Every structure is written in structure tokens, then in C-alpha cells.
Amino acid sequence: MSQQFFQNLQETQDQAPRKFRFAPFVVLIALVSYAVIVVAMLTAPNTANAMGLTPSTKASIDTTNSTPWTLPSMPTKCTDAQIATGIVASCVISKYTDVTKTGWGTPPFPIAADGTLNPGWKSNGWAYSGSPALKDWEAAMWKSANKVGTIRAGALQAPPAALALFEGFLGEIQTSGYRITDAIGYNFRCTSNTRKDCVGLTSASLSNHAWGLAIDINVGANPEVRYLPTADSPTTACSVPMATNMPQWVVQTAEKWGLLWGGYGWSGGCVTPATVKSNVIRDPMHFEFRGSVEDAVKIASVNGVSVKRYCSNVIEGGSTVRKCTWQDRPQAGWRTSVPLQGPAGATSALVNITLTGATQVGYVTAESCDGNVTGERQWSNGNVSVGATVANLAVVPLDGLGRFCLYNSSPMHTIVDVQGFFMPSALSDSKATKFTPFSPSRVLDTRKVGGKVAASALKEVAVNGVLKDAVAILTNLTVTGTSSEGYLAGDSCTKLSSNAPDSSNLNFSSQDTVANLAVVNLGQMSQGLGFCTWANQELHQIVDIQGVFTPGASGMWGFNLEPQRRLVDTRKCVTDCAEVFRPGAMIKLKAPAGASAVLVNLTLTDAANSSFVIADRCSTLMPSTETPSNANVTVGRVAANLAVVPVDADGSFCVYTSSATRVIVDIQGTFSPSADLRFIPVSSVRRFDSRKLAN
Questions:
Q1: What does the DSSP 8-state code read for residue 277?
Q2: Bridge partners (DSSP) listed for residue 460
Q3: Whether 531 contacts 492, CB under 8 Å
Q4: Which residue intervals of 552-617 are DSSP H helices?
Q5: Domains and CATH numbers, the chain
Q6: How far from each other are the two terminal CA atoms of the chain, in whole angstroms?
Q7: Strand (E) positions, 9-110?
Q8: What is the pLDDT of residues 442-481, one digit of tens each?
């Protein structure tokens, strides 16, 4: 029905009758028409609801008397305090007159101000369901995943929180013996006692069915009728027996789930059969929910059904807003703010970004929360395939609140581990360091020496020969021979114990070969200067070092943060496409002016075979199977990795692909002796994990 009739159900005063005459043959025609749209949902009984939970117990509700409740007496209206508890079995919820103010959203409307049909709307005679204009509105609703008694899977459609109430109610009454032969829920129309096509009306006349907040069951046995006083009941229409097969216990069960029964009557309803009414519309097929989204979640929980949402602080137009979704992860287009708790004055941070749980191929960008960035991003800081778990190092810009924003191109979970911060030299202290590059060199390959490292074992990695005052090392970590989903962490051996660390440098799936750049703290160990690794399973480890961070300044490089931008995307090449998509392809790129080295994100996709890339000066790049790699990818996957790449005197550098692979290169910053930013390494610490925000 309509919120137009959502008046105080405790009302006992007679209202002025509407100009409406009831004719039996009209009702018959209406019932026949309505029955055409009802889905007959006859299947084998199933006592479990779509949430996979057994319907809650019926407490004090007596289900033994199945006599139709033809002269109902309505309970009192639920108080706000009662609704807040979720225990509403002894009252009825009639909380609002405007559905849009309770968190269920504002639907579009089919009729324009001049009375014509808006574009994108198509009427099937009684409803507009399925119209192109309703695509987004209907996409936000869920369908019942499993059978609910005799009601087939997918037949019910409603907002998730309301769906939990309807499934719980319908499953419970069928388990207790009430048979449902037909049912309908979502149906975009105006109320049946106005005009279902909404012509000449406003959105105030939309039925609760349009929100998916109402269901009709067993239509033929429970017709909607306007009742008038009769010779047997000359005083009040409320004392006229109603046509229904609904026993009282069914209605009481509905109220336990927060649902209001239309059999009590609209236009104020019949509080008792003795209520003075000259006419009353009764709709015993109809059950609806009039509470808020939060009310529905609470009532479902009290009745044994957990309805989970994901909520996060999202930046929109420069403002922070709280956004929720009925999915359990950040959604496409969200810019989630991530506070990092860095030192005062830090302008950027080095973070490890892990992506998992992607429902489609997608990417994330790490960007400033300042401003209002919109549309598809032209760079990425991490890329992931469906079913994969990947990690990628990134330098992220920090705003005045010490945070950055993660933008999701598609629904996925994100995890952020901090490895250090960059800050201007003028603000730095003795802990601040600069970078000294090395020619990439391999210091560990367990495929050749030692064999696979055992699960949960500390593996010492000696780096003797580097600068003696080095406090951290830039290293490319690679794992292969994985047996299941897992992760690897690196740190100084004194800080990394045999207990499972709560942060990671590298994440992988079964049978993966995955690499990720990392900054790892150094310390003294049994073999001299070095660090340790830890992995949750037995696997091979490969370690390539690229440079060190030291507190000194002479001859060392500072860092400049560059506006992130895409240098090349071979998926979009116009000329020489065959040249860049072949084994042994060499791609020459230009670095920003004054750069001694560039910090770039390398993304690999569409690999014809298992492949790796090497990035280096064009003049010295001599690739071979023994050369340390910067990124690795397998067929059917998308992989990314950060790399520090030295540049030639002419400001160029090259990227080599071992197999036919699409390559994307995004710049994040530059290193040079003249660059100002110093780096403060920290032991990796987790600052954000979206998997823990679902509630």
C-alpha cells in the first residue's frame, strides 16, 4: 500500500470516507488481474531461510489454532524504545509517513510534472518493474538465494535488511504449517487504491512494494476489499468479518519479525471490531515493514539472522562521508581515507597495499584526499584478478591530516601496511635517511641453495658488503612454489619472531610466482648484517637487493614525489604493437628532468606465457634468465610491482619483457642527489584492513 495511508494506527476516530464504491465484479476482475503477476512458487519444503539459518523459535505464539482471523484486534503501536531492542512481538511498527527518510533511498518516479511518462519508463499495465530507468534502483536489491519453504530461490526481491525479515517470517510460518501457494514482493507501482500506473500522482503515492518493503501472499484467499457496514453489523465496518485464510498466529509471527499486517485496515485501521468506521480498506494478503534500515538489522539479529554491511569513511567532493553497502567490501568508485599516524611534517609514505577478494579484474590508486578526483584513473598502484591476492609497494601522498585515499575501480578488499615516511630535510632528524642505489644483485635463491624454507621459520638473509651504517635495504622479494594462499614478511631478525606477524610485504595464491619491492630494516645476525623473512607456508624465496638507506648525506640520493601519471600502456599502442608484444621486447621511456632514478609501478597483464620484466638503464640492460627481475606474472593473472630504475645520461630508461606481455608503467617519484625528501624507515605496521570493517 502507500505511505499516503500510513497514518496513526491507534486512531479511533472515524475519518471522512473516500469517494469509492465497491462492486463485487470489480473485485473479481482485480483479483484475476493481480493473480496474473503472482509467481506460483511450489517446490519441496525447506525449513532453512536464505541466510542459511534455522528460523527462530516461536516463543509464546500458539500455532495450534488455524481458524482464520476474520475480526482482528490490533496491538498497540511499538514505542521507539521497543523498536530499539528489536523485540517487537507484542506491538505493531508504524514509524513513518515518508519512506525516503528512513535510509531506504529515494526512488525515481515515472510521471513528469506535465503528466507525461518520463524517458526510460515502460508500464506493463500494473507496474513499471524492469524499466531501464530502474536499473540502478533494482540492482541495489537482493533476491532470495535459497528456497523459503514453497517459495523458490530468487522469487523474493527486497533491500537486504528487509529481505532478511521477509525470509525469516515466510520460512517460519511455513515450518509451522501455513502453506503459501503464491507470493510477490518488489513491484514498482503506486498503491492499488490510487492508480497503479501513478498517472496524475506524485511519489507520495508509491506503494511500499516499490521499495521492496512489502510482500503479498495467497492473494486469492486474502483479497483487498473496502468493507462497509451491513445489516448484521450496522454500526461499524470493523465488525464485518473479513475474507481471509490468515490465522492469528501467522500475523503474530509477522509482528515478531517487525511486519505490519494489512488485515488491520488502512486509513487508520480497526483497533478493535467495535471501532466506529463507516468504511475501511482491509488488505490481508499484505505485510510490510515501516521501520528504518537500522531497525530491520536489529530485529533480524534478535530473531537469529545476521545482516552484515560494510561501512567506511569515504571522501566525496573534499568532504568525509560515511558510506555503507550491503556487500562486505569497499565498492567501485569509493575513495576510502586511510590515516597513517606518521611523524609531523611527513609529506608522503611508503606503504604495502594488498588487494584480495576482487569480484572482477580491477585496480586501486593511492592518491591525495585533497580535491575532488573523478572518473577513471590514468595510473594504478595495484592490480588484481578475480580470486587472486596480490601486494604492491607504493609511495602515497599525505594530506595535512596524515592520510591518503585509496580509490577502488571495482569491489575488493584492501590492506595497508606502512614501511616508512618521507619528509623534507629541514624537518628531518637523525633517523632520517637518504638512498644509495646498487646494481641489482641476488643474495638469496633457495631454488639453488638450501631448498624450500619451512613454514613459520625465520630465514636469515645476509647482505654483507653494503654500507656499514645502512639501516634499511631496498629489496625485491620473490616467492615461488606456493601451495596455498599466504603471505611473507621481512624485518630485522630481532623484530621478526617466529610468531605470525600482523603485517606483510608479499601476498600470494596457490601455485603463484609473485614479487614485491620492500624496504626492510637491517640488523646484526649470526652471519653479519642482514634481515629475516617469515612465511606462513613452505616455499622458495628469492631476494634481490637494489639499494640501501643510510643517515648520511654525501653522495646519496633524496626523493621527489611526482604527480602520479602513466608513462606507457602497451594495451593501447597505436603503432608498432607487434614490436612491444613479443618475447624480448625493449620499451624505451623518458624520465622527468634531473632524475638519477625513477620510482615506477610496473604492471603486467595478458601474458602469453609465464613472464618477467627487467627495468634498467638502456645502455647497460643485458637481460638473461639469471638477471634479477622487477616483476613476474603467470598466464591469466595481473601482476604489479614497484621498482627503482636508474636512468641514462639522456634521461631515458628501458623495460624488457621476457615473453609476450602487455606492460603498463606509472611513475610515482624520482631519486637524485638534489632531491630533498629523506626517508624514515619503520618496522612494518598495519594501518588499514577493510576485511575487519564489515559489521
A1: -
A2: 532
A3: yes
A4: 577-580
A5: 3-15+22-302 (no CATH), 308-414+685-695 (no CATH), 434-550 (2.60.120), 562-670 (2.60.120)
A6: 32
A7: 39-40
A8: 899 999 999 999 999 999 999 887 877 888 999 889 999 9
